[in-house]
Amino acid sequence: MVGTVSTFNSERAPCGRKVGGERTREDDSEGLLMDTIIYKCGCRWVREQYHDGSFDVRVVRHDGRILSDEHSGMHEG
Question: 43: which of 10, 14, 32, 53 fits an S-S bond (Cβ 3.0–4.6 Å)?
């Protein structure tokens, strides 16, 4: 699995604040992709894409409130 980490200075977090943070992206070159953004305020955005093309996306505000939890449904048995 190949991964990259990058930082950013000012981007709108799910809570509405403009803050910096870190983005991590991991890819196995066969379709598995994990993309995570962690904002300095504590908010998180996570996207996981599976080999069959299905995906999960979850957005969590810094206080733990889940703002979005999407599933494409293709990989769920």
Answer: 14
Give strand ranges (E) for the chain: 2-12, 18-27, 33-39, 44-49, 55-60, 66-71
Determine contact, residues 12/31, Cβ cutoff 8 Å.
Answer: no
Ranges of residues in the chain with a pLDDT under 70 are 1, 73-77
Give pLDDT, residue 42: 97
Q: What's the CA gap between 54 and 48, in Å, rounded?
A: 8
- Look up the pTM and report it: 0.84
The residues, ordered by sequence, that sit 6+ positions from 69 with a Cβ below 8 Å of its Cβ are: 56, 57, 58, 59
